[in-house]
């Protein structure tokens, strides 16, 4: 994988940063993307570049805006070269009963969780197929495989992301390009910490009980999956060993869907 060029959306923290770090550790040049404090992001970028010895750049595109997604891909080509690996990781959440679910939050989740992956994949696919190599990995969720209450938009968009994955994979199956989805179980990231607080409000449980009784209730290993475990799955799918795997959903979920 040395010298491959990768984009990882939503990679300034959490799972995305772990994926970027793992790909860089395998010799990839990586474009980071995400929102946050500019000084903190630059520190992350510089540290990752120093540790990996590869080229690490950053683009602050808001992936809810199609034009900015296209600009992100164009910037990666200009800074790194042809895009070999695209990891659509950016995702957001809103927890609410359906009757009270804000319309604007539905639209926002669709834009970030699903439409951004479509626009980014569309922007890279022609070059990948022309060069007969490419890896697209969509970070879905265990909730892309099963349902859950109070998360209508998140569940719907993650199911949609799984469907998008399968469609892309079949379309480019003979071109050397693969497309897969990784479906994490409960991972303790900043977005999950916010979900814990939101669920505590909805259910009346303490944050500790939310983690134990809600998030880990159906995760047989009874611990969060780590961001590094998710990153390891992504590295496998992008590596030569994963070249025969396409159109699949790889559940890194602590046994959640085994029940």
UniProtKB/TrEMBL annotation:
Alphabetical list of PROSITE patterns matching this protein: ADH_SHORT (PS00061)
Listed SUPFAM superfamilies: NAD(P)-binding Rossmann-fold domains (SSF51735)
Entry superkingdom: Bacteria
Protein name per the record: 3-hydroxybutyrate dehydrogenase
Keywords from the named record: Oxidoreductase
Organism: Xanthobacter flavus
Gene Ontology MF terms: 3-hydroxybutyrate dehydrogenase activity
Pfam families assigned: adh_short_C2
Gene Ontology BP, a term: monocarboxylic acid metabolic process
Xref: InterPro entries: 3-OHbutyrate_DH, NAD(P)-bd_dom_sf, Sc_DH/Rdtase_CS, SDR, SDR_fam
Keyword rRNA processing: no
EC primary class: oxidoreductase
NCBIfam families, per the entry: PHB_DH, PRK12429.1
Family: Belongs to the short-chain dehydrogenases/reductases (SDR) family.
EC numbers, comma separated: 1.1.1.30
């Amino acid at each position: 994988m040395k010298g491959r060029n990768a984009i990882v959306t939503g990679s300034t923290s959490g799972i995305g940063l772990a994926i970027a770090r793992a790909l860089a550790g395998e010799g990839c040049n990586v474009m980071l993307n995400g929102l946050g404090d500019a000084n903190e992001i630059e520190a992350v970028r510089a540290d990752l570049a120093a540790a990996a010895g590869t080229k690490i750049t950053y683009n602050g595109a808001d992936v809810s805006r199609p034009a900015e997604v296209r600009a992100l891909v164009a910037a990666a080509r200009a800074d790194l070269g042809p895009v070999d690996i695209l990891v659509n990781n950016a995702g957001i959440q809103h927890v609410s009963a359906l009757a009270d679910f804000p319309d604007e939050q539905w639209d926002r989740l669709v834009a970030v969780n699903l439409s951004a992956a479509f626009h980014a994949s569309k922007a890279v696919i022609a070059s990948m197929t022309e060069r007969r190599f490419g890896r697209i990995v969509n970070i879905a969720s265990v909730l892309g495989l099963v349902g859950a209450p109070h998360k209508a938009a998140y569940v719907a968009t993650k199911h949609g992301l799984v469907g998008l994955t399968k469609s892309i994979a079949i379309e480019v199956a003979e071109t050397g390009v693969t497309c897969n989805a990784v479906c994490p179980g409960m991972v303790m990231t900043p977005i999950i910490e916010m979900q814990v607080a939101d669920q505590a409000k909805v259910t009346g449980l303490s944050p500790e009980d939310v983690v134990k009784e809600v998030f880990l209730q159906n995760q047989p290993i009874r611990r969060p999956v780590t961001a590094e475990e998710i990153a390891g799955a992504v590295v496998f799918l992008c590596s030569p060993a994963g070249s025969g795997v396409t159109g699949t959903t790889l559940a890194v979920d602590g046994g959640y869907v085994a029940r």
